[in-house]
Amino acid sequence: LEPFAYGSEGGTRMLRTSFLVACAALLVPVCVAQTKLEATDIVNHPFSQDFASGGKLRLKVRSGEVHVIGTDQDKISVEISGKKAYAAGDVKVRLERKGGDADMRISGGPHNDLTITIRIPSNTDLYARIPAGEVHVENIANNQDIQVHAGDLTVEIGDSADYSHVEASVVAGEVDAPAFGENHGGLFRSF
Predict the structure, then answer these.
(1) Taking the CB of the first residue and of the last residue of the chain, which one, N or C, has fewer CB atoms within 10 A?
(2) Lowest-pLDDT choice from 150-154, 157-161, 171-175, 180-184
(3) Burial of 123 by CB count in 10 Å (0-12 exposed, 13-18 middle, 19+ buried)?
(4) Minimal CA–CA distance to 57: which of 95, 30, 90?
(5) What pTM did the predictor assign?
(6) More reliable by pLDDT, 179 or 120
(7) What's the pLDDT score for residue 73?
(8) Residues 126 and 69: beta-carbon distance below 8 Å
């Protein structure tokens, strides 16, 4: 008897089982490495999640006053403040982590008088998209690709020679990055 002979009932069943076990084993690391979180009521319960330094963060934030601040802590945190913070109960933070990378979306809340402060490890590659508002980015030591469609964008860093790539743009408004000798106002501004 040949247990793995083609066409034998026992051999086919055993091959099918082996194949399914192998597929499941390949999918386990993908399932373990991916985490999805969603949080609301950020005013009363600020969002905080571990995030290792050296990762990549893709950030999409609703319009408004937004501060992205690099810190020496290995975590991402989101806080809400401002005159209308009390009315920001519907602000939602969604974080999806895949290994050392993460996608974060912040949505909801009142249309004005609200400040969103996001703290991330300084050594993070940052890709940020904010439709409109007053955006401040400071103390991020890795690559930066930041775009604001309308409003003011200020990028504050230490020595510009420490950066491999920084890209900042606004469709209408002002880009201010004194460390790079850049200050442009008007339409379609970038550096």
Answers:
(1) N
(2) 180-184
(3) middle
(4) 95
(5) 0.72
(6) 120
(7) 96
(8) no
